[in-house]
Amino acid sequence: AKNGVGIFVREPLAKKVLDIKRINSRLMWIKLRIEKQTMIIFSAFAPQTGESEKMKNNFWTALSDTISTITKSETILIGGHLNGHVG
Question: Is the pTM of this model over 0.85?
Answer without folding.
Answer: no
